[in-house]
Design goal:
Two copies of one chain form a homodimer. Chain A contains eleven helices and twelve strands. Chain A is of the alpha+beta class and 344 residues long. Chain A has two domains: 3-142, 60s Ribosomal Protein L30, Chain: A (2-Layer Sandwich); 149-334, Phosphoribosyl-aminoimidazole Synthetase, Chain A, domain 2. In chain A, the strands form three sheets. In chain A, strands 8-10-7-11-9-12 form a six-stranded mixed beta sheet, with helices on both faces. A four-stranded mixed beta sheet of chain A has the order 3-6-4-5. The radius of gyration of chain A is 21 Å and the shape is globular. The first copy, chain A, starts with a helix and ends with a helix. In chain A, 53% of the residues are buried. Residues 15-21 and 320-344 of chain A have low confidence and may be disordered. Chains A and B meet through helix 1, strand 2, strand 3, helix 2 and strand 4 of A and strand 2, strand 3, helix 2, strand 4 and strand 5 of B. Strand 2 of chain A pairs antiparallel with strand 3 (43-53) of chain B, so a sheet runs across the interface.
C-alpha cells in the first residue's frame, strides 16, 4: 500500500472539500500540495507543533488508540493555553511499516478526539522510519486577545485546572516504579491514573471561560513547577504557592501525602491549564466557573513582585513556611532529573 | 543542554517579537505555548507539512547544512505549487543526541534559506530519537486564487521549470549506482547533480509569474510522471508528452539519452514546478517568463480529453509515437517500484 493509499484509507474522513464551500473554513483539504484555509475577519492564526516519539513520550506498549488521542490532545492543549479556538491540524506520521491493525486503532483514537473538538485534519505526510507522530494544530483567536505567558502581575492569584500528578503516577504505575518504591496502589486507581496519562483532556472548554479573566496561561506538560517557572520568567515576577491546598485526585490522596505532592508538583504530561487571574476578578471568575464548567479549578497560590535582592533568582517558588520547593519537571534532553530535583 | 536551551541557542534568530508590532505578521513567535500570526485581509492560509528522515529522504552522510536547507526547501516548494506567498514555518526536530557541530550547520542551512525567502521560524519542538525533521510551512494567497491540481483542461499546454532528473542522478552518483551501471560521469557533473539533490531551489519566484497564467500546478517530488498523474487524475483528463523535447541539463546530456530521459521522467526530489497553461495564454506567459525570470521553463506536452473507452485509465501518458511511458516515481511505502515501473 502506497503513501497516498494510506492517507486515503485511514486519514481522509470527509468527502472532497468543495472549493466554494466553507466547511470549518477548509477551502482545500487533503489531496493537493497544501491545504487552503479561511480565517474569519479580525482573527489571528494560532499554531503549535509537537512530536511524540515511542518510548520517549509514551511507553512503547501504549495502545495505538491512546497514541492517536494523545498526539492530538497535547497539541490542542497548547491552543487552549493560548485562549484560541481549535480549527485544523496536520499530521506527519513516521511508521516502521504498514501495520493495518495499529493504523486503524491510531486513526480511530485521533478521529474520535478530532470530532469531539471539531477540528479538521487538513494535511498529512507518511514516511517510513521509527514510530514518530508530529502534529501541528492551528486555531484562531480574536485579534490581539491571545493569552500569553508574559502577563502575570503581582497580587494575581494562581489557579490550576484538574488534579495534576495523576499522569505521572500513571506512568510510574506502568513502569513499575510504584511497586519498586513499596507503594501499594489499588488496580482501580492505577487504571484511573494510566487513563489520565494515555487520554489527557485538552482544556479547550475551560479555556473559553479562563481567557475572559486570566492575565497569563500555560499548559502543564513538563511539570507544574517548571511550567509555572516559564510564566514567572516571562512575566518577571515570583510566586508563592501552598502545596497543602493542592488539588489531589481521590487516587493520589491514597498515596503518602509528601509523595503525592511531589508527583503533583513535578510530574509531567497532565495537560492541565495553569493561569493567573487578578485578585479583583477572582470572585467573578469562580462564579463563571461554577455556572459554566464541571472541571475542578483550584487556587494554589499568588504572584508576588520580583525579589529585590539580586542574589535571589526570579521565579523561585516558596511555600508559606519558607521551604524551597523549587524543582524541575521532565526535560527531554536532561538525564539528571533526579539529581537536579534534589540539588536544593 | 535542555530543550529550551537548544531552541534558544540554535533556532531563535530574532529578538523577542513585539506583541504590538507586525514583523512579517508574527505577533507572538517562539517562546509561548503557540505562535500568533496575522494574515492580511482577504487572504487565505496555505499550509503543508513534510517530514525528512535520515536514510530515507536523504543519504545518511548528507551534510547537516544541506539537511537544514532541504527540509525547508521541500516544504516551500509545496507553497510555490499552490501559488502562495511563503510567510512562516515551524520545526519539529528529533535528534539522537546533542551534536553541537551538526546543530550549528543544520541551523545555518535552515536560516540561510529562511532569510533568502523571507520566512520566519515561529515555533519549534525538539525531542530525542532517531534523526527526523518535520517542517510545516504556512503562507498566504489571495482569497480563492490558490493553484490546485484539479484545474487542467483539454488543450492546455504542459510546462516544467528547470531540468528534472538532476537530483535523481545526484542520488545515483552518491549511491554508486552510476558506476555500477558502467556510466562514466565527470566529477564536475556529479557535483552539480549532487548539489541539485542536496540544495533544491523552491520555485517561489517562478510561482509568482506562473500563478497568473496556470490552470493547475504541482511540484515534482516523487517523479515527473507520477506527479503529472496526480494532476491528470484530479482534473479528469489525460496528457501527451514528448520526451524528445524534454529539458535536460548539460550534465544529463552527457548520459546515454534513453537513460537521461528515464531519470528526468521518473526521478524524484527535483522540486521543479509542473503546470498547465491554456493554449491562448501561452504566448503571453512565455513573454512574461522572458521578462521576469531567468529559470528555464519548457513546454513538454499537452492535456487531452479523458479517453472515451472505459477500458483506458485516466491519465495514461503516451508519447507521440504511441509508446506507453507510464511509470511511477518513488513511493515511500512501496518496495516494488521496479516491478510497478515495468508492469506495462
Amino acid at each position: 500500500m502506497g503513501e497516498f493509499d494510506l492517507i486515503e484509507t485511514y486519514f481522509r474522513w470527509d468527502n472532497d472539500s468543495d472549493p466554494t464551500g466553507d466547511k470549518n473554513g477548509v477551502v482545500t483539504g487533503i489531496g493537493d500540495d497544501a491545504a487552503v484555509l479561511q480565517l474569519e475577519p479580525n482573527q489571528q492564526l494560532v499554531t503549535s507543533i509537537d512530536t511524540l516519539i515511542s518510548g520517549v513520550h509514551f511507553p512503547e506498549n501504549t495502545p495505538a488508540e491512546a497514541v492517536g488521542h494523545k498526539a492530538l490532545a497535547v497539541n490542542l492543549s497548547d491552543l487552549a493555553a493560548m485562549g484560541a479556538k481549535a480549527k485544523w491540524f496536520t499530521l506527519a506520521l513516521t511508521l516502521p511499516g504498514t501495520d493495518h491493525a495499529w493504523l486503524k486503532a491510531f486513526s480511530s483514537g485521533l478521529k474520535k478526539l478530532a470530532n469531539e473538538t471539531s477540528v479538521s485534519l487538513v494535511g498529512g505526510d507518511t514516511t517510513r522510519g521509527p514510530l514518530a507522530i508530529s502534529i501541528q494544530v492551528m486555531g484562531t483567536v480574536e485579534n490581539n486577545l491571545s493569552l500569553l505567558r508574559s502577563g502575570a502581575k503581582p497580587d494575581d492569584k494562581i489557579f490550576v485546572t484538574g488534579t495534576p500528578g495523576d499522569a505521572a503516577v500513571g506512568l510510574a504505575s506502568i513502569q513499575g516504579d510504584l511497586a519498586s518504591e513499596g507503594v501499594e496502589f489499588a488496580s482501580e486507581d492505577k487504571a484511573i491514573c494510566e487513563a489520565r496519562l494515555n487520554y489527557p483532556t485538552p482544556r479547550l472548554e475551560e479555556s473559553e471561560v479562563i481567557k475572559q479573566y486570566a492575565t497569563s496561561c500555560i499548559d502543564v506538560s513538563d511539570g507544574l513547577l517548571q511550567d509555572l517557572g516559564h510564566i514567572l520568567k516571562k512575566s518577571q515576577v515570583s510566586a508563592v504557592i501552598n502545596p497543602s491546598e493542592f488539588p489531589l485526585s481521590d487516587s493520589l490522596k491514597k498515596l503518602p501525602k509528601d509523595k503525592a505532592i511531589q508527583y503533583a508538583l513535578n510530574g509531567g504530561d497532565d495537560y492541565e491549564l495553569l493561569f493567573t487571574v487578578p485578585s479583583y476578578k477572582c470572585e467573578a471568575f469562580m462564579q463563571a466557573v461554577s455556572e459554566k464548567l464541571t472541571t475542578h479549578i483550584t487556587m494554589i497560590g499568588e504572584v508576588i513582585s520580583q525579589p529585590k535582592s539580586e542574589k535571589q533568582e526570579i521565579g523561585v517558588i516558596l511555600d508559606p513556611n519558607g521551604m524551597n520547593l523549587r524543582g524541575n519537571g521532565y526535560n527531554h534532553f536532561n538525564d539528571d532529573i533526579r539529581d537536579e530535583n534534589s540539588r536544593d
